[in-house]
Amino acid sequence: MEHIKTDILIIGSGIAGLYCALSCPKHLSVTIVTKSRLQGGNSYYAQGGIAMAVAKEDNVEMHKQDTLKTGCRLSDEAAVDILVSEGPVLLEHLLELGVPFTRLTSGGLELLKEGAHSRRRVLHIQDETGRFLEQNLIHHVRRQNNVTVLENHHLSSLMIQEGICRGAYILSENEHITCVQAHSTVLATGGASAVYSKSTNWSGAIGDGVVAAFDAGAEVRDMEFIQFHPTAIDFGRGKRRYFLISESVRGEGAHVVDETAARFLFDYDPRGELASRDEVARALASHVAKGHTIFLDCRPIGPQFPVRFPGIYTTCLDKGLDATKDLIPVGPVAHYMIGGITTTPEGQTTLPSLYACGEVASTGIHGANRLASNSLLECLVFGHRVARDIADQKTESKVFRKTAIPLITDVPTQGRTARQSKRIKQMMYEQVGIVREEKTLIKTLEYINMTLAPFETVRTTILSLNAANLRNQLMVSRLIVQAALLRKESRGTHFRSDYPETNPALDYVHTLSEKQAVQ
Question: Which residue of 87, 222, 247, 494 sits 20 to 30 Å from the alpha carbon of 334, by its own alpha carbon?
Answer without folding.
Answer: 87
